[in-house]
Amino acid sequence: MAKRQLRLGAFFSLPGNHLGGWRHPDASPDANTNFNRYLELARIAERGLYDTIFFRDTAAVAGADAMFAGDRSRSRLARIVMLEPVMALAGMASVTKNIGLIATATTTYNEPYHVARRFATLDHMSDGRAGWNLVTSQFEDEAANFGLDKHPDHADRYARAGEFFDVVAGLWDSWEEDAFLYDKAAGEYFDFDKMHFLNHKGPHFSVRGPLNLPRTPQGRPIVAQAGSSGPGMDLAARTADLVFTAQIEIPEAQAFYRDLKARLHRFGRGPGDLLVLPGLTPVVAPTMAEAREKHEQLQELMPDEVALSSLARLSGGLDLTQFPLDGPLPPLPPTNSGKSRQQLAIDLARKHSMTLRQIARHVASAAGHRVIVGTPTSIADEMQAWLEADAADGFNVICNHYPVPFVEFTEMVIPELQRRGIFRTAYEGTTLRENLGLATPRNRYAA
Amino acid sequence: MAKRQLRLGAFFSLPGNHLGGWRHPDASPDANTNFNRYLELARIAERGLYDTIFFRDTAAVAGADAMFAGDRSRSRLARIVMLEPVMALAGMASVTKNIGLIATATTTYNEPYHVARRFATLDHMSDGRAGWNLVTSQFEDEAANFGLDKHPDHADRYARAGEFFDVVAGLWDSWEEDAFLYDKAAGEYFDFDKMHFLNHKGPHFSVRGPLNLPRTPQGRPIVAQAGSSGPGMDLAARTADLVFTAQIEIPEAQAFYRDLKARLHRFGRGPGDLLVLPGLTPVVAPTMAEAREKHEQLQELMPDEVALSSLARLSGGLDLTQFPLDGPLPPLPPTNSGKSRQQLAIDLARKHSMTLRQIARHVASAAGHRVIVGTPTSIADEMQAWLEADAADGFNVICNHYPVPFVEFTEMVIPELQRRGIFRTAYEGTTLRENLGLATPRNRYAA
């Protein structure tokens, strides 16, 4: 029997996930707004046989609150502007054939009719390669662009998100597969009985439908999610095909994986119906010494003030400049977020006796995701270990800057995964759903 | 001195503007949802040197209200589904180099931050070829998809539209042209003083900004409009670069043109700052007899019930099936819409002694726009006459079905316009603004 296969996402955190990455001599610092760079990355990703491209999104300048309050140090940060990602994917669809196209769109500041329509359009444009990463907005920055003084609270956001999904999925079923007749002789364009009004009326939305697009090539686009709180995991278990998550160590990743997959049966689904992809930031070189050197060079590019303010954001804004940079991590005040990235940082600093500067740079550089510094073999070893330990179904590969580290991972690590028989050597199908090995959902109205 | 030049838009009313057009043997009836057809049309349009592609939009199945009420005859209509047009343009941007990309997005059921962002993204993706057709929604069909029982009234919609424009234009000025430094050595990504918060607070919107995209290649995208009421014309005079309009006869077109251009000075603008493009539906053939025959064949494809219900919509829903189809047009009840399409139909029927069936087919086939049946010479004559009479700055070419009539107009009429020296033989510039001969707006914050 064929070995279990890794799934790989190309998560483009442009112009680079490392907060100093844009300063690297190899980096394209305008990779977030120059569409030619996007097209170049799409072609590399498709040559590398990744399952999908994946874009985050923020409907605001990230960090705008701090800048509004006068924090000029943010001018050192590059991840503040970007092309609207669903649009970018529409442009990438024209120059690719097989790779999936997933982008984030928030349920907090959108209307479900627009979201259903845009991702259905992308699925039609790409012949079945679209995916929607359903999120609730995490940033106060966005509220001020949509008429709100304050961001809605967690429970509200999740209640809205669940209903938002129901409306979108309902709209995607508006037309049965064979609803369009195109019968020129009889003059019948469609079968009236195969068009359906949704008539949704709920606490957050009232949407009649139908969607003004035929059923899409994949039946409906793939749905991805990233929630790791209880309500987030329940929503994913009910609605998602793919979960993107931040996991650092195998035991915690296994626990998350097990917990999430165990929730599926409550919604009539099986463990194969939802794929779990932790983020992974590779620093790869032919030898371990070169890889470490490369990582060190990158860390040097991160200004101390950026590193400290990243760590401070995990700690309710505590002013860390009062502590010596080469001393130990000071005690941090408790926070009330779901799964605490702060606690992960505290544990890590203790385990490796890191200084304040070191742990601050670490937190800032990884943005919560796992950084693997190594050779093609050692990185493939770790990826395989996670797969075999049921800690992951694959990984979302997030690079420190673009395009060079992405090319390196693609050309050095992927061939090693292929040699081991745990990654494809050709696309299996033509739709994202086929390549991910996921079933096509039935239309709720189909006889 | 060079002759005054015609502007030409390729207005893609897919799968065809004629309500029976999709039934024609040459027609691609899925041209509204099959993206390969869109790409084919984009390539033809760019080879033809059109200034711009232009898409209408409805965020609903058009006619959904009637279908909700049980009108099954709508299954004969094709213009009910379509790709979301801003997304379609993003895909077309990748396979074109010079042609403009204008799509409609309603101000009635959108948020200005999203609209500003999507069109700015399109301008970046296309290196300066994007345009936004700002409209207020005209169809009750949309209200039910966005939580409203009733469509807002005309005055409300225009008040919101004006403020919506102000927010979008303000967001497009968020960053000065040289705000991004990309200074790797100093670690300065942007110049903090060249980023601007909008801080808009108005009756409809509260939007802080900044937009999360740099200033666009055109300064800002082109703004098109189509309003013909007094408030619509005032809004266009204040904010639009281009106006799309329905005009049938030269005297009325001249009056509209004069009226609109006369409003410009109140907003500190000159007559060259806004271009007026009436719609034009060509039926072209080598001889006049062939062209008439072609038009007759097309009219035969329109089912009587579709023709009658189009005319009935102009007449407050009067049941026209009670009158003999081959008799004269019966008296129609008065309507209260701004510029009456009904009155145009009544005048036309009287002038040409048309039967009820003939005038109903005429109304249904043109959808309010001018149909010119003729040879390349006669059509070019009429276009030139309108240009020279200051009845138009050019035309939006709207075809009865796709792609054949569009290819015919492009290959038969455009060369005739070029021979007369009133249409370009190569693109003048690389941005839409340059090709239209419009100035680049200054950033409001620029020193």
TrEMBL record, chains A, B:
What keywords appear on the UniProt entry? Answer: Flavoprotein, FMN, Monooxygenase, Oxidoreductase
PANTHER family from the UniProt entry = ALKANESULFONATE MONOOXYGENASE-RELATED, C2H2 FINGER DOMAIN TRANSCRIPTION FACTOR (EUROFUNG)-RELATED
The UniProt entry, under InterPro entries, shows: Diverse_substr_monoxygenases, Luciferase-like_dom, Luciferase-like_sf, NTA_MOA
Q: Which residues form a coiled coil?
A: none
Entry-linked NCBIfam families: FMN_nitrolo
What family is this protein classified in? Answer: Belongs to the NtaA/SnaA/DszA monooxygenase family.
Q: Where does the Luciferase-like domain start and stop, copy by copy?
A: 26-388
Q: What is this protein's name?
A: LLM class flavin-dependent oxidoreductase
Which source organism does the UniProt entry give?
Answer: Neoroseomonas terrae
What Pfam families has UniProt attached to this entry? Bac_luciferase
Q: Which CDD domains match?
A: Nitrilotriacetate_monoxgenase
TM spans, by residue?
Answer: none
